[in-house]
Design a protein that fits this description.
Blueprint lengths: L2 H21 L29 E3 L4 E2 L4 H21 L3 E2 L19 H6 L4 E10 L2 E10 L3
Parallel strand pairs: 1-3, 1-4, 2-4
Antiparallel strand pairs: 4-5
Length: about 140
């Protein structure tokens, strides 16, 4: 579409909206959508002078679809790699997670078992398919029970 023609359509649209606004009462404002937080704050306590020991297992897939199961594994690995890259935490090696039962939800985490392998906290999350892609929820759970 040529720039002149696009400008003509834009001006015609503005004129139509201006005329409509003059002849109809103002519409009620649309309801506010809940906004996602722009910042995430996380406080992790551990032994003084030592980095907190964190475990980051694969996310919990909320369906048995192969794509969702694969996405749960991938997101868990990427999250572990990203946190490990920052060198702010001691990340419990992922090969030691085999002894911990896999959680069925973020509320059903065997925190006592994670504590047995030395974790101060566990980053747990779930993943499911949504209408526009995947929906991921992540929580930090502490093992100080």
């Amino acid at each position: 579409m040529k720039p002149i023609r696009l400008l003509t359509f834009a001006l015609a649209g503005c004129a139509t909206m201006a005329l409509t606004a003059q002849t109809q009462p103002p519409a009620a404002p649309p309801p506010q959508q809940p906004r996602q937080p722009s910042e995430i704050e996380l406080v992790i306590n551990g032994a003084p002078g030592l980095p907190p020991k964190i475990a980051v297992p694969d996310l919990i897939p909320l369906s048995s679809e192969p794509e969702t199961v694969a996405a749960a594994k991938t997101v868990g690995e990427v999250l572990w790699d990203d946190l490990n890259f920052e060198r702010e935490f001691y990340l419990i090696p992922r090969d030691t997670y085999r002894s911990i039962p896999v959680a069925s939800s973020t509320e059903q985490v065997a925190l006592d078992r994670w504590k047995e392998i030395g974790a101060d906290g566990v980053v747990v999350g779930s993943i499911r398919k949504g209408p526009n892609g995947y929906v991921v929820e992540v929580r930090r759970r502490t093992t100080s029970i």
